[in-house]
Amino acid sequence: MSRWLIPGLSLRTAILLGLLLGAVCGLGVNLLGGSALPFVPPLLAYVTRPLGQIFLGLLTMTVVPLVFASLAAGVARLGDLKKLGRIGLKTMGFFVVSMAAAVVIGLVLVNLIRPGVGLSDETRQKLAEVTRDQAVPGERKPAQFGIQTLVNIVPRNPIRAAAEMDMLGVIFFALLFGIGITALPARHGELLLNVLQAINEVMVYIIGLAMLLAPVAVFALIFSVTAELGLELLRMLLLYVVVVLLGLGIQFFGTLPLLTGMLARIPPYAFLWKARDIAITAFSTSSSSATLATSMRIAQTHLGIPPHIAGFVLPLGATMNMNGTALFEGVTVLFLAQVSGVELTLGQQGIVVLLSVLTAIGAAGVPGGSIPLLMMVLASVGVEPERIGLILGVDRLLDMCRTVLNVVGDVCAAAYVARTEGQTPAAPIPGPSADGKDEQGATPELPTESAAR
Ligand code: ASP
User: Which residues line ligand 1 (CB under 6 A)?
Assistant: First the structure.
């Protein structure tokens, strides 16, 4: 687990402390009089809001390069494996179906429970002011759903699409770019793939740097909001967390076992139980990439998935298959729309499903990897991206939980592919012994967050 600036303090603990301290101090200030206290307006204007703004700016600057590089490289890599087209199709089919199911579950829950509805007009107005102050200039781009939305998917000028953060345009161009790479002579294709990979890694590095600021920034963001808005907003945030966790629970204990039982024809709960070390690693690292080593090993030693299938499906899944993330994105977009008083039509919610799946595919498998992309989805449906500041404080906990879904989903996909390729996953699986060691006597390793970077 990566350390923070104070010796002995992990980044995760520091962020949680920032969240708690920010909420407690903000609420305290709110109870004492909020903005009416003389020191509060300058504190908000010159310290806490600028800090939040800088943090959001750092995350936002990575969005376009990250989406472009990771999607184009992902597609190119798939094309590279043309000979394995059959496996590729099955894998992608499983990924897309499980991710779409996840977002739909999330959207149904958020429509039923409506965690973001019921803010008083006064609070909403204040919220608009607070988040507008945190705005990172030039990235708001409301969109209406209609035929023009479909036409706009094909950008006339990809650079303009990038500059305006027109996400669908960027994604479309990235997909074509990736397909184009597969048509190049191997030497040129490899070159481009390496460049894309390197861009990806640099963006992940920048996100890592931004995360060093996270504890202080989360304090500042939560403080700015609670000092002005008080308890009403915190209650709503709690309900939002409950909705996300409920959705993740349904996906984990319902959809994934159902898909695994039906498609891989194996007893799903026993399968999930054997995959528990993978889940623990994902939970403690919040990173699909950092969990890859563990899932590769356990898939082969405990789950009976043959190496050539594990070696293909799991790395692809660590980058592209994120059903926990897709669900989280769908819920968050609708929640923040509700908070902002933006009503999303059924058509726009359809766009949210599509964008959540696409951006979950494009998200980096590192802690907080989906946040910049989520900001793009928000902008695409007309919600101010800076509203993300509201949920950043609680995101760490949600990230740990959704990453578990992300990696367990990969293993389920691998089991399905293995079964259809004539292998019997989970057949004679030697279970781990009571002391937690596997049959080779090795204790499952917990890779560090920094290993993902
Ligand atoms: N932390 C997630 C993962 O690595 C990505 C995200 O949702 O931010 O799978």
Answer: 286-288, 322, 325, 363, 365-370, 399, 402-403, 406
Ligand 1 atom closest to Cα of 289?
4
Using CA atoms, how far apart are residues 312 and 109, in angstroms rounded to an integer? 34
**CATH numbers and ranges of domains, the chain:** 11-452 (1.10.3860)
Tens of pLDDT, residues 220-231:
877 887 787 777
Range with lowest mean pLDDT among 38-42, 91-95, 189-193, 378-382: 378-382
**How many Å apart are CA 79 and CA 180, to the nearest integer?**
9
CB 229 within 8 A of CB 31: no
Cα–Cα distance, 437 to 445 (Å, whole number): 10
pTM over 0.85: no
Six-digit token string for 15 = 């962020």
Largest CA distance in the chain: 72
Residue nearest atom 1 in ligand 1 by C-alpha distance: 367
As a whole number of angstroms, the distance between CA 280 and CA 274 comes to: 12
